[in-house]
Amino acid sequence: MKQLIRAIVGVVAVTVVAGFLPAQAAATPSSGISAVTLAEGDIPAGLLPFVPKGVHVAVREITVAPGGTTGWHYHDGDLVGLIRSGTFTHPGPDCVPTIYRPGEIIREPHGQANTHAGRNLGNTPVVLDVLYLLPLGKPLSEDAPAPGCDKE
């Protein structure tokens, strides 16, 4: 009987502890993406009055092959991009896509609340030039799980 009680207490303890552990979110992988960094550097804190905390600046050329996706992600800083070629489908956290065509500007605000994906649903590569303005020490992007409304 003591062994049964110990087993039950053990199961309950594991269940309680597991409830306090952070849930692991399943990131959505990218596919068909290539990127070339054209320029990058850091602006240290205090160098410019409008950059009080410092910022990492990067300019990248990103190509999304037909059928490719960036996967769901977000950025810790703001991004601005120019679509050079192709048609870029860009759903946000509500899964409502915005369509961008050559010559159009895309803006991606920072933060996990602005989780998004980029997709090439067309037959030609999407090429875009992107300016990243990130807090110092932060990665270019952070993986995120697909929102519940995403059916892909």
TrEMBL record:
Secreted keyword on record: no
UniProt signal peptide: 1-25
Keywords for the protein's UniProt record, in alphabetical order: Signal
TM ranges: none
Domain of life assignment: Bacteria
Domain Cupin type-2: 62-128
Keyword Signal (UniProt): yes
InterPro entries documented for this protein: Cupin_2, RmlC-like_jellyroll, RmlC_Cupin_sf
Name of the molecule in the record: Cupin domain-containing protein
Source organism of the structure: Gordonia hankookensis
